[in-house]
Write a structure and sequence with these properties.
The protein is an alpha+beta fold and 245 residues long. It has 7 helices and 10 strands. Strands 1, 2, 3, 4, 5 and 6 form a 6-stranded mixed β-sheet that branches. Strands 7-8 form a two-stranded antiparallel ribbon. A two-stranded antiparallel sheet has the order 9-10. Strand 7 and strand 8 form a beta hairpin. Helix 4 crosses helix 5. It is globular and about 50 Å long.
């Protein structure tokens, strides 16, 4: 699908997701480029082919159960720790008839992170490297960035000897290492933003509804601080690494 039709389908997905979360009083919010799109474009960033949300890690089991029960049958809900050969440490929601690599909403569970800055940098680096190693082991290269295929194939030769359960157990350990309720900082395994993706919890836990295309969706109440930490001058579109934001 072209970007316009992709975003139309994503809007249907987030609308159904939002209705179910509202019905069951489940906390969630848009995250990353989806927050940026809401603030800068009142919807999708024009070139953004996906949509991202945060949920609380402790709510993930409940969310999975409710979504699988209440969503229409044409949806495909991927549980990161149950899907054989899945390369990502977070859940995805998409359609059964479309490969999840082509159309998806990413559901990132947020976890506690250490308060000490040096320790937090080490923690986020370990999370990032573990995520990347697992991704290289399982990713389907036909959906990979062409310039990265050579590196991925070389890494696949190394990581094929590491059983998948080791990565899953590592994700479980990292996700529960710091008590989220007591932690002052949060993080999520699987983000490409690294250390700057870890901020004080108070920045994001309070949300407000914000226009997103024809919907009103939750973003951080302190979205200016959140977006400044993530992108700097977020109102000016720039290229950051491989991501155009």
């Amino acid at each position: 699908m072209d970007i316009e039709n992709t975003q139309k389908e994503l809007l249907k997905i987030i609308n159904d997701f939002d209705k179910i979360c509202s019905k069951h009083n489940i906390w969630y919010m848009l995250v990353g480029g989806s927050v940026l799109g809401a603030v800068r474009h009142e919807g999708f960033i024009p070139w953004d082919p996906d949509i991202d949300v945060f949920v609380k890690n402790k709510d993930l089991k409940k969310i999975r159960s409710i979504l699988k029960e209440e969503l229409p049958q044409y949806y495909n809900y991927i549980e990161w720790d149950k899907e054989e050969g899945y390369s990502l440490p977070f859940d995805r929601l998409g359609y059964k008839e479309i490969p999840h690599q082509k159309l998806h909403m990413d559901i990132f569970p947020i976890i506690g992170a250490p308060t000490n800055k040096v320790v937090r940098k080490i923690f986020t680096k370990i999370c990032f490297l573990t995520y990347k190693a697992n991704h290289c082991k399982y990713v389907d290269i036909k959906y990979a960035n062409p310039k990265n295929i050579g590196s991925i194939l070389r890494l696949k030769k190394i990581f094929r000897f590491i059983p998948g359960f080791i990565f899953k157990n590592t994700f479980y350990i990292l996700s529960n290492l710091f008590d989220f309720k007591k932690a002052k900082y949060y993080y999520t395994i699987g983000t490409g933003y690294g250390f700057k993706g870890s901020m004080q919890k108070e920045i994001i836990m309070e949300t407000e509804k914000f226009p997103f295309e024809n919907l009103m969706l939750p973003i951080p109440k302190y979205w200016d601080e959140y977006l400044t930490n993530m992108y700097g001058d977020y109102m000016t579109p720039v290229k950051e690494g491989f991501k155009k934001v």
